[in-house]
Amino acid sequence: MSESSAGPGTLGAMKRLWTPAWIARHVAMVVLVTAFLALGWWQVSRAAAGNAISWGYAVEWPIFAGFVVFVWWREVRHALRGAEAGPSAAVGEAPDAGDPTVVERAEAVEAAGVRPRPGIGRPVRVTRTVGGHGEEDAELAAYNRYLSWLNANPGAKPGDYPG
User: Fold this and answer.
1) What is the pTM of this model?
2) Which terminus has fewer CB within 10 Å in the chain: N or C?
3) 152 pLDDT band (50/70/90 cuts)?
4) The pLDDT value given to residue 3
5) Average pLDDT value for residue range 100-117
6) How many CA atoms lie within 13 A of 72 on its CB side?
7) 3-class DSSP state of 128
8) In the predicted model, what is the mean pLDDT of residues 59-81?
9) Do residues 13 and 80 make contact, with C-beta atoms less than 8 angstroms apart?
10) CB under 8 Å to 33, separation ≥6 — which residues?
11) Which residues contact residue 17 at a Cβ distance below 8 angstroms, ignoring those fewer than 6 apart?
12) What is the percent of the chain with per-residue pLDDT over 90, rounded to a whole number?
């Protein structure tokens, strides 16, 4: 792929896939796929020799190999997509509003009419209250009185509660 046809950002993104960590991932993928396919072939030979249960394993091992390829491909696409977003899109970094490259990128995105994808935020916690507007649940109030009594009488046993 030449630099003119790939664009300036694509080659930089491809270089990210040749770091020591990515080389280890590529090697692991090749080793696992080769091993899983070899195990599948071994199971086919066992099944042909009369071991009926090996037919199931002969189907399973190539599926495992396909799953490894799927996960590897998904990670490659995720890495390339992250490289296209630029260096300020790294995990844990907030873009600096005063940085001219961030401002220029934001202006270019607005001019192109492209809406940026929202990031994954923290989950929203919803608290539920029992009862309506100011109404207190009688059972909850009795339990709270019981807890208050236990707190006021630390040596007491639950069976000593007068209420």
Assistant:
1) 0.48
2) C
3) confident
4) 45
5) 64
6) 20
7) coil
8) 94
9) yes
10) 65, 68, 69
11) 26, 76, 79, 80
12) 34
| Structure tokens, 44 | 């086919």
Tell me if 89 sits within 8 A of 81, measured CB to CB.
no
Measure the CA dihedral 50/51/56/58, to 10°: -70
Per-residue tokens: 35: 């091993």
Q: Which of 100, 97, 99, 91 is nearest to 119 (CA)?
A: 91
Which of 81, 87, 72 lies closest to 23, judged by CA? Answer: 72
Rounded mean pLDDT, 25-46: 96
Amino acid letter, residue 58: A
Angle between helices 8-16 and 54-85 (to 10 degrees): 130
Report residue 4 as tokens.
């003119």
Q: Bin 5: left if φ > 0, else alpha if -120 < ψ < 50, else beta.
A: alpha
Mean pLDDT across the chain:
78
